[in-house]
Amino acid sequence: MPELSADLYGTVSHKLDALQPSGIREFNKEVSKIPGIIKLTLGEPDMATPEHVKQAAIRSIEEDDSHYAPQMGKPELLEAISDYIQNTRDVHYDPQTEIIATVGATEALDATLFAILNTGDKVVVPTPIFSLYFPLIEMTGATVVQVDTSADNFVLTPEKLEEVLEEEGKGVKAVILNYPSNPTGREYPQEVLAGLAEVIKKHHLYAIADEIYSELVYGVEHYSIATMIPERTIFISGLSKSHAMTGYRLGYVAAPAKIMTNISKMHAFLVTTVTNNVQVAAAEALTNGLNDPLEFRKIYQHRRDLLVAGLKKLGFEMLTPEGAFYLFAKIPAQFGTDDVAFAKQLAKEAKVGVTPGSAFGKGGDGYVRLSYASSDENLTEAIKRISEFLDHLA
């Protein structure tokens, strides 16, 4: 096993070296070492990818679809994405110039942020939120402006956004909106989005809309800010959550052609193009699998209700999620706001893995995130173990 030459120690990207790894992944890695643990830590659907989608990928391989795909994506996939957004958001994106297939929504975010940000720019990020946004923004040389939304039921209000923009002054270039939200499961009502759209227009900003969980909503309608201000919105989504295709790594970004020129350039630098059979599978999902998420949605809603009811009986405080597959619950009072201590003790003594809320930025202290992308049996057993854990604490 070779060892790095001593004279190369420390000769790395100082910007990257200064960034912390994902707190979500690091905590999951730590608790995964505990034998018999029930992990409710990661947002990983436990469903199988629909059979017709898998068969499309297999056919692509069998037909020797093994050469470089067009850089922005296969035409049939870009057409399918365009049709899907037209039908669900009432916005037409030209499949030839305004859509790119990416390696997951993560690459879509990365390409977007590097395409629009310069050193010294600022990005407003309502928190708690998926923490990957923070290092991606910082790698560009821009600054994250975290806005704690916990006092507003974990929704960024137009009034709060206006207040933050007045405080920050010049330099803010974009606002990131992730809804339904990871980790809170909160949706944005139409009137709130309309108000945010007005503030974003007034201050000449981009809206980066990460709507990866939009097909998984419960009892509410999903609205998109792209419908309201398409000229300012960079729309990001993918198939990972809606079709249980996390391992396929298929996302996409859609935006006006003038900004897509830069995003496409960054996409080319990062990955060249997306794997062929993955694109074929995604085209099948968006063409013949639009109803697939409906079945998943029923299952997740049942699991949500099971987990919410069980934890409320144990005295946990939470808002009932309206989308995604996460529950954001306040930890027992005796732990104060030390969610890390609570999550570690719960993992070691009760063998239930949850993610500390502080991993999601400001406003997350004193909470934990539980993923209900797990079986009924696991969720029922987790509630039982948590109940016994709390009894021992009393």
TrEMBL record:
Key word Transferase present: yes
Organism superkingdom: Bacteria
Known EC number: 2.6.1.-
Gene Ontology biological-process annotations: amino acid metabolic process
Domain Aminotransferase class I/classII large, chain residue ranges per copy: 37-386
Family: Belongs to the class-I pyridoxal-phosphate-dependent aminotransferase family.
Protein name (Swiss-Prot/TrEMBL): Aminotransferase
Biological source species: Limosilactobacillus reuteri MM4-1A
